[in-house]
Amino acid sequence: MPNAIPSTRFLTLGAALAVLLSGCGGSPASPDRADDTSAGRGALLRHSPTRLLSLDAAGVATQLNKFGTQLLLVAGAPKCGIDFHHVEYNTVGAAGEPTTASAAMLVPTGADPACGGKRPVVLYGHGSSFQRKLNMADITDATNEGAGRIGTPAAMYAAQGYIVIAPNYAGYDTSRLNYHPHHIADQQSKDMIDALGAARTALAGLPHPAGENGKLFITGYSEGGYVAMATHRAMQAAGITVTASAPQSGSYAESLDYEVLGTSGALDDLRAFSLSTQLQLVMQITAWQKAYGNLYTSPSDVYSGTYAGAMETLLPATMALDTLVADNKFPQYFLSQDMPHYTGLTAAQKAYFGTPAQSLMNASYLSRVLADIAAHPCPVTSAVAPLACAPANPMRAAWLKNDLRTWAPSAPMLMCGGNGDPEVSFDHARLTHAYFQAHGSAAQLLDVDSPVTDNDPYARSKNLFAAFRQAVIDSGDDPTTVDNYHGFMANVACEVAARDFFSRF
Protein backbone atom coordinates (compact mmCIF):
# COMPACT_ATOMS: atom_id res chain seq x y z
CA MET A 1 0.00 0.00 0.00
CA PRO A 2 1.34 3.45 -0.81
CA ASN A 3 3.07 6.04 1.22
CA ALA A 4 4.38 5.93 4.74
CA ILE A 5 5.00 9.00 6.86
CA PRO A 6 8.41 10.46 5.99
CA SER A 7 10.53 10.93 9.09
CA THR A 8 13.32 13.36 9.93
CA ARG A 9 16.49 11.41 10.71
CA PHE A 10 19.26 13.95 10.57
CA LEU A 11 20.31 13.64 14.20
CA THR A 12 22.69 10.67 13.99
CA LEU A 13 24.53 11.10 10.71
CA GLY A 14 26.80 14.09 11.18
CA ALA A 15 30.06 12.30 10.47
CA ALA A 16 29.05 10.94 7.08
CA LEU A 17 27.63 14.26 5.93
CA ALA A 18 30.52 16.31 7.24
CA VAL A 19 32.92 14.26 5.15
CA LEU A 20 30.67 14.45 2.11
CA LEU A 21 29.55 18.10 2.29
CA SER A 22 32.46 19.95 3.76
CA GLY A 23 12.66 35.68 16.22
CA CYS A 24 9.36 36.69 17.25
CA GLY A 25 5.61 36.02 16.99
CA GLY A 26 3.24 38.07 14.88
CA SER A 27 -0.34 39.05 14.34
CA PRO A 28 -2.79 38.85 11.46
CA ALA A 29 -1.31 40.66 8.49
CA SER A 30 -4.57 41.39 6.74
CA PRO A 31 -8.10 42.59 7.56
CA ASP A 32 -10.78 40.17 8.65
CA ARG A 33 -12.53 38.35 5.83
CA ALA A 34 -15.86 36.54 6.00
CA ASP A 35 -15.46 32.87 6.86
CA ASP A 36 -17.85 31.91 4.08
CA THR A 37 -17.44 28.92 1.78
CA SER A 38 -19.84 30.55 -0.69
CA ALA A 39 -17.05 32.97 -1.59
CA GLY A 40 -15.65 30.35 -3.95
CA ARG A 41 -12.61 28.13 -4.21
CA GLY A 42 -9.30 29.69 -3.25
CA ALA A 43 -10.87 32.58 -1.33
CA LEU A 44 -9.09 33.60 1.88
CA LEU A 45 -10.93 33.10 5.16
CA ARG A 46 -11.09 35.57 8.03
CA HIS A 47 -7.94 36.35 9.99
CA SER A 48 -5.88 34.96 7.15
CA PRO A 49 -2.99 35.10 6.67
CA THR A 50 -1.59 35.02 10.19
CA ARG A 51 2.14 35.39 10.65
CA LEU A 52 3.10 32.81 13.26
CA LEU A 53 6.85 33.37 13.30
CA SER A 54 9.42 35.75 11.83
CA LEU A 55 13.08 34.73 11.82
CA ASP A 56 16.18 36.32 10.34
CA ALA A 57 18.72 34.06 8.62
CA ALA A 58 20.55 33.34 11.88
CA GLY A 59 17.26 32.52 13.57
CA VAL A 60 16.33 30.21 10.72
CA ALA A 61 19.62 28.36 11.18
CA THR A 62 19.02 28.04 14.92
CA GLN A 63 15.47 26.75 14.42
CA LEU A 64 16.40 24.30 11.66
CA ASN A 65 19.37 22.99 13.64
CA LYS A 66 16.84 21.66 16.14
CA PHE A 67 16.22 18.98 13.51
CA GLY A 68 19.96 18.20 13.57
CA THR A 69 22.81 20.26 12.15
CA GLN A 70 23.01 17.87 9.21
CA LEU A 71 19.87 19.37 7.65
CA LEU A 72 21.72 22.57 6.83
CA LEU A 73 24.79 20.65 5.72
CA VAL A 74 22.55 19.19 3.03
CA ALA A 75 20.51 22.30 2.24
CA GLY A 76 23.20 24.94 2.71
CA ALA A 77 23.44 27.84 5.15
CA PRO A 78 20.34 30.04 5.07
CA LYS A 79 20.68 33.12 2.90
CA CYS A 80 17.30 34.46 3.98
CA GLY A 81 15.12 34.93 6.98
CA ILE A 82 11.65 33.40 6.80
CA ASP A 83 8.22 34.67 7.75
CA PHE A 84 5.96 31.70 8.54
CA HIS A 85 2.33 32.49 7.67
CA HIS A 86 -0.79 30.38 8.24
CA VAL A 87 -3.28 30.72 5.39
CA GLU A 88 -6.88 29.44 5.48
CA TYR A 89 -8.95 29.17 2.33
CA ASN A 90 -11.97 27.68 0.64
CA THR A 91 -11.65 24.46 -1.30
CA VAL A 92 -13.73 21.33 -1.96
CA GLY A 93 -13.97 17.79 -0.63
CA ALA A 94 -13.82 14.54 -2.58
CA ALA A 95 -17.38 14.89 -3.89
CA GLY A 96 -16.97 18.57 -4.68
CA GLU A 97 -18.66 19.69 -1.47
CA PRO A 98 -17.55 23.14 -0.22
CA THR A 99 -15.09 23.00 2.66
CA THR A 100 -12.00 24.71 4.00
CA ALA A 101 -8.32 23.91 4.29
CA SER A 102 -5.12 25.61 5.39
CA ALA A 103 -1.53 25.97 4.27
CA ALA A 104 1.85 27.24 5.30
CA MET A 105 3.16 30.21 3.35
CA LEU A 106 6.89 30.74 3.84
CA VAL A 107 8.16 34.11 2.62
CA PRO A 108 11.90 34.79 2.43
CA THR A 109 13.17 38.04 3.96
CA GLY A 110 16.50 39.79 4.34
CA ALA A 111 19.07 41.94 2.56
CA ASP A 112 20.62 39.23 0.41
CA PRO A 113 19.63 39.72 -3.25
CA ALA A 114 18.24 36.17 -3.27
CA CYS A 115 15.67 37.11 -0.63
CA GLY A 116 13.99 40.21 -2.00
CA GLY A 117 12.18 41.39 -5.08
CA LYS A 118 10.21 38.98 -7.20
CA ARG A 119 10.78 35.37 -6.15
CA PRO A 120 10.10 31.89 -7.58
CA VAL A 121 7.31 29.86 -5.96
CA VAL A 122 7.48 26.24 -4.81
CA LEU A 123 4.16 24.45 -4.27
CA TYR A 124 5.00 21.61 -1.88
CA GLY A 125 3.01 18.47 -1.02
CA HIS A 126 3.69 16.63 2.24
CA GLY A 127 3.61 12.88 2.86
CA SER A 128 0.78 10.91 4.41
CA SER A 129 -0.30 11.53 7.99
CA PHE A 130 -2.81 9.85 10.26
CA GLN A 131 -2.90 12.75 12.73
CA ARG A 132 -5.37 15.59 12.31
CA LYS A 133 -3.07 17.96 14.19
CA LEU A 134 -0.84 18.82 11.26
CA ASN A 135 0.02 22.46 10.62
CA MET A 136 3.01 23.03 8.35
CA ALA A 137 3.04 26.73 9.28
CA ASP A 138 3.92 26.06 12.93
CA ILE A 139 7.52 24.92 13.14
CA THR A 140 7.83 25.52 16.90
CA ASP A 141 5.19 23.15 18.34
CA ALA A 142 6.79 19.76 18.90
CA THR A 143 3.36 18.14 19.32
CA ASN A 144 2.38 19.24 15.84
CA GLU A 145 3.35 16.69 13.19
CA GLY A 146 3.70 19.47 10.63
CA ALA A 147 6.61 21.01 12.54
CA GLY A 148 8.93 18.20 11.52
CA ARG A 149 7.66 18.18 7.96
CA ILE A 150 8.15 21.86 7.15
CA GLY A 151 11.84 21.77 8.08
CA THR A 152 12.97 20.34 4.76
CA PRO A 153 11.14 22.77 2.41
CA ALA A 154 12.07 25.63 4.75
CA ALA A 155 15.76 24.74 4.53
CA MET A 156 15.85 23.67 0.90
CA TYR A 157 13.72 26.44 -0.56
CA ALA A 158 12.50 29.30 1.66
CA ALA A 159 15.90 29.89 3.28
CA GLN A 160 17.41 30.06 -0.21
CA GLY A 161 14.95 32.60 -1.60
CA TYR A 162 11.90 30.65 -2.78
CA ILE A 163 8.37 31.45 -1.64
CA VAL A 164 6.97 28.13 -0.36
CA ILE A 165 3.28 27.23 -0.34
CA ALA A 166 2.73 23.98 1.58
CA PRO A 167 -0.92 22.92 1.98
CA ASN A 168 -1.88 20.94 5.07
CA TYR A 169 -4.60 19.30 2.90
CA ALA A 170 -8.33 19.11 3.50
CA GLY A 171 -9.14 17.08 6.61
CA TYR A 172 -6.16 18.37 8.63
CA ASP A 173 -5.48 21.30 10.93
CA THR A 174 -8.42 23.75 10.87
CA SER A 175 -10.18 22.18 7.87
CA ARG A 176 -13.92 21.67 8.27
CA LEU A 177 -13.72 18.33 6.46
CA ASN A 178 -14.00 15.31 8.78
CA TYR A 179 -12.04 12.97 6.47
CA HIS A 180 -9.00 13.28 4.21
CA PRO A 181 -9.47 12.74 0.44
CA HIS A 182 -6.33 10.63 0.23
CA HIS A 183 -5.23 9.99 -3.37
CA ILE A 184 -8.36 11.46 -4.88
CA ALA A 185 -6.41 13.12 -7.67
CA ASP A 186 -9.12 15.57 -8.69
CA GLN A 187 -9.67 16.86 -5.15
CA GLN A 188 -6.04 16.99 -4.10
CA SER A 189 -5.01 18.92 -7.19
CA LYS A 190 -7.85 21.39 -6.56
CA ASP A 191 -6.70 21.77 -2.95
CA MET A 192 -3.17 22.61 -4.11
CA ILE A 193 -4.43 25.05 -6.75
CA ASP A 194 -6.75 26.69 -4.23
CA ALA A 195 -3.91 27.06 -1.72
CA LEU A 196 -1.81 28.71 -4.40
CA GLY A 197 -4.61 31.10 -5.29
CA ALA A 198 -5.22 32.03 -1.67
CA ALA A 199 -1.50 32.50 -1.07
CA ARG A 200 -1.21 34.82 -4.05
CA THR A 201 -3.96 36.98 -2.59
CA ALA A 202 -2.26 36.87 0.80
CA LEU A 203 1.14 37.82 -0.61
CA ALA A 204 -0.28 41.01 -2.06
CA GLY A 205 -1.77 41.97 1.31
CA LEU A 206 1.36 41.59 3.45
CA PRO A 207 2.83 44.69 5.13
CA HIS A 208 5.81 44.27 2.81
CA PRO A 209 4.24 42.62 -0.25
CA ALA A 210 6.19 39.78 -1.82
CA GLY A 211 5.99 39.22 -5.54
CA GLU A 212 6.44 36.27 -7.89
CA ASN A 213 8.92 36.20 -10.74
CA GLY A 214 6.73 33.99 -12.92
CA LYS A 215 8.44 30.69 -12.07
CA LEU A 216 6.22 28.04 -10.49
CA PHE A 217 7.70 24.74 -9.31
CA ILE A 218 5.72 21.80 -7.92
CA THR A 219 7.20 19.06 -5.77
CA GLY A 220 6.41 16.75 -2.87
CA TYR A 221 7.34 13.42 -1.37
CA SER A 222 5.40 10.16 -0.91
CA GLU A 223 1.72 11.18 -0.87
CA GLY A 224 3.05 14.61 -1.74
CA GLY A 225 4.77 13.14 -4.80
CA TYR A 226 1.44 11.77 -6.00
CA VAL A 227 -0.23 15.11 -5.23
CA ALA A 228 2.51 17.02 -7.07
CA MET A 229 2.01 14.98 -10.22
CA ALA A 230 -1.79 15.21 -10.01
CA THR A 231 -1.48 18.98 -9.59
CA HIS A 232 0.84 19.32 -12.58
CA ARG A 233 -1.66 17.32 -14.64
CA ALA A 234 -4.56 19.53 -13.54
CA MET A 235 -2.65 22.74 -14.18
CA GLN A 236 -1.61 21.61 -17.63
CA ALA A 237 -5.24 20.77 -18.45
CA ALA A 238 -6.33 24.19 -17.18
CA GLY A 239 -3.66 26.07 -19.14
CA ILE A 240 -1.76 27.16 -16.01
CA THR A 241 1.96 27.52 -16.69
CA VAL A 242 4.22 25.22 -14.68
CA THR A 243 7.94 25.91 -14.93
CA ALA A 244 8.93 22.41 -13.80
CA SER A 245 7.85 19.71 -11.38
CA ALA A 246 9.65 17.04 -9.36
CA PRO A 247 7.32 14.37 -7.95
CA GLN A 248 9.21 12.15 -5.50
CA SER A 249 8.50 8.56 -4.44
CA GLY A 250 4.78 8.72 -5.15
CA SER A 251 2.42 5.90 -6.13
CA TYR A 252 1.47 7.49 -9.44
CA ALA A 253 0.47 4.16 -10.99
CA GLU A 254 -2.23 3.93 -8.33
CA SER A 255 -3.82 0.72 -9.58
CA LEU A 256 -0.57 -1.24 -9.44
CA ASP A 257 -0.52 -1.87 -5.68
CA TYR A 258 -4.13 -3.02 -5.64
CA GLU A 259 -4.33 -5.09 -8.80
CA VAL A 260 -1.40 -7.19 -7.58
CA LEU A 261 -3.59 -8.41 -4.70
CA GLY A 262 -5.32 -10.63 -7.24
CA THR A 263 -2.17 -12.59 -8.05
CA SER A 264 -1.69 -16.05 -6.58
CA GLY A 265 -0.24 -15.97 -3.05
CA ALA A 266 -0.45 -12.18 -2.65
CA LEU A 267 -2.54 -12.49 0.52
CA ASP A 268 -0.85 -15.55 2.00
CA ASP A 269 1.85 -13.79 4.04
CA LEU A 270 0.33 -10.82 5.86
CA ARG A 271 3.41 -9.74 7.77
CA ALA A 272 3.82 -6.75 5.44
CA PHE A 273 0.29 -5.53 6.24
CA SER A 274 1.36 -3.39 9.18
CA LEU A 275 -0.88 -1.15 11.26
CA SER A 276 0.26 1.76 9.11
CA THR A 277 -0.69 -0.11 5.93
CA GLN A 278 -4.12 -0.96 7.27
CA LEU A 279 -4.80 2.58 8.48
CA GLN A 280 -3.77 3.86 5.06
CA LEU A 281 -6.25 1.50 3.43
CA VAL A 282 -9.07 2.66 5.72
CA MET A 283 -8.28 6.28 4.90
CA GLN A 284 -8.28 5.40 1.20
CA ILE A 285 -11.55 3.45 1.24
CA THR A 286 -13.27 6.33 3.03
CA ALA A 287 -11.93 8.76 0.43
CA TRP A 288 -13.19 6.58 -2.44
CA GLN A 289 -16.60 6.24 -0.81
CA LYS A 290 -16.88 9.98 -0.19
CA ALA A 291 -15.84 10.71 -3.77
CA TYR A 292 -17.99 8.19 -5.65
CA GLY A 293 -20.59 6.99 -3.14
CA ASN A 294 -20.85 3.47 -4.55
CA LEU A 295 -18.33 1.28 -2.75
CA TYR A 296 -20.83 0.24 -0.10
CA THR A 297 -24.27 0.94 1.30
CA SER A 298 -23.04 0.59 4.86
CA PRO A 299 -19.46 0.44 6.19
CA SER A 300 -20.28 -3.08 7.45
CA ASP A 301 -20.36 -4.17 3.80
CA VAL A 302 -16.59 -3.75 3.56
CA TYR A 303 -15.40 -3.90 7.18
CA SER A 304 -15.91 -6.36 10.00
CA GLY A 305 -19.12 -5.56 11.82
CA THR A 306 -17.23 -5.16 15.09
CA TYR A 307 -15.36 -2.08 13.89
CA ALA A 308 -17.32 -0.92 10.85
CA GLY A 309 -19.24 1.88 12.53
CA ALA A 310 -16.11 3.83 13.48
CA MET A 311 -14.05 3.49 10.31
CA GLU A 312 -15.38 6.48 8.36
CA THR A 313 -14.59 8.95 11.15
CA LEU A 314 -11.48 7.34 12.64
CA LEU A 315 -8.94 9.17 10.47
CA PRO A 316 -7.28 11.59 10.56
CA ALA A 317 -7.02 10.70 14.23
CA THR A 318 -6.99 12.90 17.29
CA MET A 319 -5.32 10.24 19.45
CA ALA A 320 -1.97 8.48 19.33
CA LEU A 321 -1.95 5.61 16.85
CA ASP A 322 -0.53 3.10 19.31
CA THR A 323 -3.63 3.54 21.45
CA LEU A 324 -6.06 2.60 18.66
CA VAL A 325 -5.51 -1.15 18.96
CA ALA A 326 -4.89 -1.01 22.72
CA ASP A 327 -8.24 0.76 23.21
CA ASN A 328 -9.95 -1.68 20.83
CA LYS A 329 -10.75 1.08 18.34
CA PHE A 330 -8.95 -0.77 15.55
CA PRO A 331 -8.73 -4.53 14.93
CA GLN A 332 -5.70 -6.63 15.65
CA TYR A 333 -5.83 -8.49 12.32
CA PHE A 334 -6.20 -7.45 8.69
CA LEU A 335 -7.90 -10.55 7.25
CA SER A 336 -10.06 -13.19 8.85
CA GLN A 337 -10.00 -16.96 8.90
CA ASP A 338 -13.07 -17.13 6.65
CA MET A 339 -11.08 -15.99 3.62
CA PRO A 340 -11.43 -18.77 0.99
CA HIS A 341 -7.68 -19.43 0.76
CA TYR A 342 -7.13 -19.71 4.54
CA THR A 343 -7.38 -23.49 4.74
CA GLY A 344 -4.46 -23.92 2.34
CA LEU A 345 -2.02 -21.81 4.33
CA THR A 346 0.83 -22.95 6.54
CA ALA A 347 0.50 -22.72 10.30
CA ALA A 348 2.91 -19.77 10.33
CA GLN A 349 0.80 -17.93 7.76
CA LYS A 350 -2.45 -18.69 9.57
CA ALA A 351 -1.10 -17.00 12.70
CA TYR A 352 -1.63 -13.61 11.03
CA PHE A 353 -5.35 -14.21 10.40
CA GLY A 354 -7.96 -13.52 13.05
CA THR A 355 -11.56 -14.44 13.63
CA PRO A 356 -14.08 -12.29 11.72
CA ALA A 357 -14.75 -10.32 14.90
CA GLN A 358 -11.02 -9.59 15.32
CA SER A 359 -10.33 -8.58 11.72
CA LEU A 360 -10.59 -5.45 9.61
CA MET A 361 -11.91 -6.58 6.24
CA ASN A 362 -15.20 -8.28 5.44
CA ALA A 363 -14.10 -11.48 3.70
CA SER A 364 -17.03 -11.65 1.29
CA TYR A 365 -16.49 -8.08 0.10
CA LEU A 366 -12.78 -8.58 -0.49
CA SER A 367 -13.45 -11.89 -2.23
CA ARG A 368 -15.72 -10.10 -4.70
CA VAL A 369 -12.99 -7.57 -5.45
CA LEU A 370 -10.47 -10.36 -6.06
CA ALA A 371 -12.95 -12.20 -8.27
CA ASP A 372 -13.40 -9.09 -10.39
CA ILE A 373 -9.63 -8.78 -10.86
CA ALA A 374 -9.63 -12.34 -12.19
CA ALA A 375 -12.69 -11.84 -14.39
CA HIS A 376 -11.75 -8.43 -15.81
CA PRO A 377 -7.94 -8.18 -15.82
CA CYS A 378 -6.30 -4.81 -16.44
CA PRO A 379 -2.91 -4.45 -18.23
CA VAL A 380 -1.55 -2.20 -15.48
CA THR A 381 2.10 -2.77 -16.44
CA SER A 382 1.56 -1.71 -20.06
CA ALA A 383 3.47 1.36 -21.23
CA VAL A 384 0.84 2.24 -23.83
CA ALA A 385 -2.64 1.67 -22.38
CA PRO A 386 -2.37 0.42 -18.77
CA LEU A 387 -5.95 1.36 -17.90
CA ALA A 388 -7.62 -0.23 -20.92
CA CYS A 389 -10.05 -2.47 -19.07
CA ALA A 390 -13.61 -2.47 -17.78
CA PRO A 391 -13.83 -3.50 -14.12
CA ALA A 392 -17.27 -4.32 -12.78
CA ASN A 393 -16.37 -3.75 -9.13
CA PRO A 394 -16.70 -0.14 -7.87
CA MET A 395 -13.61 -0.33 -5.65
CA ARG A 396 -11.49 -1.31 -8.63
CA ALA A 397 -13.05 1.45 -10.69
CA ALA A 398 -12.06 3.90 -7.95
CA TRP A 399 -8.40 2.95 -7.85
CA LEU A 400 -8.15 2.87 -11.64
CA LYS A 401 -9.75 6.33 -11.84
CA ASN A 402 -6.99 7.73 -9.66
CA ASP A 403 -4.12 6.17 -11.58
CA LEU A 404 -2.20 9.12 -13.05
CA ARG A 405 -1.20 7.44 -16.31
CA THR A 406 -3.72 9.43 -18.33
CA TRP A 407 -1.59 12.34 -19.59
CA ALA A 408 1.93 13.35 -20.60
CA PRO A 409 3.65 16.43 -19.14
CA SER A 410 4.75 19.10 -21.57
CA ALA A 411 6.73 21.11 -18.98
CA PRO A 412 9.97 19.63 -17.59
CA MET A 413 9.50 16.93 -14.95
CA LEU A 414 11.94 14.95 -12.82
CA MET A 415 10.58 11.81 -11.17
CA CYS A 416 12.81 10.69 -8.31
CA GLY A 417 12.89 7.62 -6.08
CA GLY A 418 14.93 4.60 -5.06
CA ASN A 419 14.71 1.11 -6.56
CA GLY A 420 14.73 -0.57 -3.15
CA ASP A 421 11.93 1.45 -1.56
CA PRO A 422 9.92 -0.97 0.62
CA GLU A 423 7.00 1.45 0.98
CA VAL A 424 6.38 2.89 -2.49
CA SER A 425 7.67 0.55 -5.15
CA PHE A 426 9.95 2.18 -7.71
CA ASP A 427 7.76 0.46 -10.29
CA HIS A 428 5.37 3.38 -9.88
CA ALA A 429 7.99 5.77 -11.22
CA ARG A 430 9.37 3.31 -13.76
CA LEU A 431 6.01 2.40 -15.29
CA THR A 432 4.73 5.99 -15.27
CA HIS A 433 7.94 7.16 -16.93
CA ALA A 434 7.54 4.45 -19.58
CA TYR A 435 3.97 5.62 -20.18
CA PHE A 436 5.14 9.22 -20.54
CA GLN A 437 7.84 8.19 -23.00
CA ALA A 438 5.34 6.19 -25.04
CA HIS A 439 3.16 9.30 -25.26
CA GLY A 440 5.85 11.74 -26.30
CA SER A 441 6.96 13.30 -23.02
CA ALA A 442 10.60 13.98 -22.15
CA ALA A 443 10.07 13.56 -18.39
CA GLN A 444 13.21 12.39 -16.59
CA LEU A 445 13.55 9.45 -14.19
CA LEU A 446 16.13 9.35 -11.40
CA ASP A 447 16.98 6.34 -9.25
CA VAL A 448 19.08 7.69 -6.38
CA ASP A 449 19.95 4.11 -5.42
CA SER A 450 22.12 3.58 -8.50
CA PRO A 451 25.78 4.07 -9.47
CA VAL A 452 27.09 7.49 -10.46
CA THR A 453 27.74 7.68 -14.21
CA ASP A 454 30.08 9.89 -16.24
CA ASN A 455 28.96 13.54 -16.16
CA ASP A 456 26.03 12.50 -13.99
CA PRO A 457 23.89 15.60 -13.25
CA TYR A 458 22.60 13.92 -10.09
CA ALA A 459 25.89 12.60 -8.75
CA ARG A 460 25.45 14.59 -5.54
CA SER A 461 22.09 12.99 -4.76
CA LYS A 462 23.39 9.50 -5.47
CA ASN A 463 26.46 10.09 -3.32
CA LEU A 464 24.27 11.41 -0.52
CA PHE A 465 22.10 8.32 -0.70
CA ALA A 466 25.17 6.05 -0.55
CA ALA A 467 26.57 7.99 2.41
CA PHE A 468 23.26 7.79 4.26
CA ARG A 469 23.07 4.06 3.65
CA GLN A 470 26.58 3.50 4.99
CA ALA A 471 25.92 5.70 8.01
CA VAL A 472 22.77 3.72 8.84
CA ILE A 473 24.74 0.47 8.56
CA ASP A 474 27.57 1.87 10.69
CA SER A 475 25.03 2.80 13.37
CA GLY A 476 23.93 -0.85 13.54
CA ASP A 477 20.58 -0.17 11.91
CA ASP A 478 18.92 -1.71 8.85
CA PRO A 479 18.92 0.51 5.72
CA THR A 480 16.10 -1.47 4.11
CA THR A 481 13.35 -0.52 6.58
CA VAL A 482 10.57 1.86 5.63
CA ASP A 483 11.78 4.52 8.06
CA ASN A 484 15.37 4.39 6.89
CA TYR A 485 14.92 3.86 3.15
CA HIS A 486 11.68 5.62 2.26
CA GLY A 487 11.49 8.02 5.19
CA PHE A 488 15.11 9.12 5.23
CA MET A 489 17.66 8.00 2.63
CA ALA A 490 15.58 8.33 -0.54
CA ASN A 491 13.65 11.27 0.89
CA VAL A 492 16.63 13.55 1.47
CA ALA A 493 18.49 12.47 -1.68
CA CYS A 494 15.43 13.20 -3.82
CA GLU A 495 14.81 16.56 -2.14
CA VAL A 496 18.36 17.56 -3.10
CA ALA A 497 17.83 16.32 -6.65
CA ALA A 498 14.59 18.28 -6.96
CA ARG A 499 16.23 21.55 -5.95
CA ASP A 500 19.17 20.93 -8.26
CA PHE A 501 16.67 20.29 -11.07
CA PHE A 502 14.72 23.48 -10.35
CA SER A 503 17.92 25.56 -10.25
CA ARG A 504 18.30 25.03 -14.01
CA PHE A 505 15.23 27.12 -14.82
Please characterize this protein's 3D structure.
By secondary structure, this protein is of the alpha/beta class. It has two domains: 314 residues, Rossmann fold; 134 residues, no CATH class. 35% of the residues lie in helices and 13% in strands. The strands form two sheets. It has a seven-stranded mixed beta sheet with strand order 1-2-3-5-4-6-7, with helices on both faces. Strands 8-9 form a two-stranded parallel sheet. α4 links the parallel β4 and β5. α15 runs antiparallel to α16. The longest helix is centred in the last third of the chain and has 21 residues. It starts with 13 loop residues before the first helix and ends with a helix. About 5% of the residues have low confidence.
End-to-end separation in angstroms reads: 34 Å
Mean pLDDT: 93
Number of domains: 2
Helical content band: 25-40%
- CATH topology group of the largest domain: Rossmann fold
Question: Largest sheet, order of strands side by side?
Answer: 1-2-3-5-4-6-7
The major β-sheet equals: 7 strands, mixed
Percent strand equals 5-15%
How many beta-strand segments? Answer: 9
CATH H-level homologous superfamily name of the largest domain: Alpha/Beta hydrolase fold, catalytic domain
Shape: globular
Q: Helix count?
A: 16
CATH architecture of the largest domain: 3-Layer(aba) Sandwich
Please identify the structural class as seen in this structure.
alpha/beta
Order of helices and strands: HEHHEEEHEHEHEHHHHHHHEHEHH
Give the C-level CATH assignment of the largest domain. Answer: Alpha Beta
Low-confidence stretches: 4-8, 14-34
- Specify Rg, calculated over alpha carbons: 22 Å
Signal peptide: 1-29
Protein name: Alpha/beta hydrolase
GO molecular function, one term: triacylglycerol lipase activity
Keywords: Signal
